[in-house]
Design goal:
This protein has ten helices and five strands. The relative contact order is 0.06. The protein has a five-stranded mixed beta sheet with strand order 1-2-3-5-4. It has about 400 residues and is of the alpha+beta class.
Amino acid sequence: MPRDSISTVRANPTVPLATGCAALAFLAITAGLFAHDPTMLDEPMTTSSWLLTAATLLLQAGALAGRDRWPFRSMLIVSALPLALAALAPNSAFTVTIIPVTASVFLAGLHFTLTRTIRWSIAVVTCVALGQLINRLGLGDDEVLQTVVAALAQALVVVIGPLLPACVLSSHRAATSAQREMLNALAREREAQISEAIAHERSTMARELHDIAAHHLSGISLMAASIARQCESHPEAAKDGALEIRQQSRAVLHDLRQLVGLLREDDDQQIKTLASIERLVDTANRNGRRVDLTVLPDGERDPGRLLSPLAQLAGYRMVQESLTNVGRHAPGADSTVIVDAGDSDALHLTVRNTSPTQRHDSGAGGSGLGILGMSERAALVGGSLDFGPTDDNGWVTHMRIPFDPDRGNR
């Protein structure tokens, strides 16, 4: 889709280079043809005229290189530079200067809206027409009116010629982008409908869970009260009641396991622990990332043995979120995950990455919710989270998780 934002245009250094080379090559071919057939010349050209023409082409190519920041100003400068050449050294090879103008108009029409491009193209038509007019008059053309009409017609051809195919390509790209957006919107709507249906089903199962638990537990409570009265007067009935309580307990546990299993969010039905970090790192390396895992002290097999399952899950999620952030904000960077259980009071988790080696869009910043989530998880288990840039333009995230004293002493 054509864009009005100048910052969205991505510069390609090969474009001005290719345009300059093509224009100089065409100038060389023109010089060869004039040398072979001098009658093609309106006026004899001196060496200085050839050099000034070549210099103008190089300046036009240089101005074209600035189209990434000032696309329309660059287009205007490219079309205005030949005016100086026409005033200083009018010559028969002046028409070669329209090659960079054609390239600049095509690129502008390809990346920007038609309305804005046409507004600037009027100025380009004026510059090209004036250049052709001044050059023809400088060569001694006496038919002023005919020269003005010819110059204006040539300027219109120079601008409209590349603008039409650029608009066709731009319209095709806009239609493709709109179709893609429509498909994405339909996919998001479908996902929202699925999520709503899942939420409804979960709510239904939660109510069913409540009903099952209330039914079984109320029956167990009544039987327990009856057994308390029958222990001395009717021992056999009390024994039967105890067996019934056992059966009811098994039934409620079975039903609860089934419903809780359906309500779990994790597809793999596994609680994430610190031992799962190794599998997380292996997956990242298989996906083309470079991630190293270090467990301290050396030889430690179960660094999370003194942590509760909730604390281990908090540590795992911190490493997972940190590696995700590296892939999003520092593509190509090397990462190191350090699991340090050497402290007698707490476990230390560190994820450090180097400077990114690939270009990424600095404007597409994160929402900050990942850092907030990690901080909340750390606070939930009594720990802390530190993060920030490093001296080598990288990033480091560190989480401290205190050991659970109920799980033994170091």
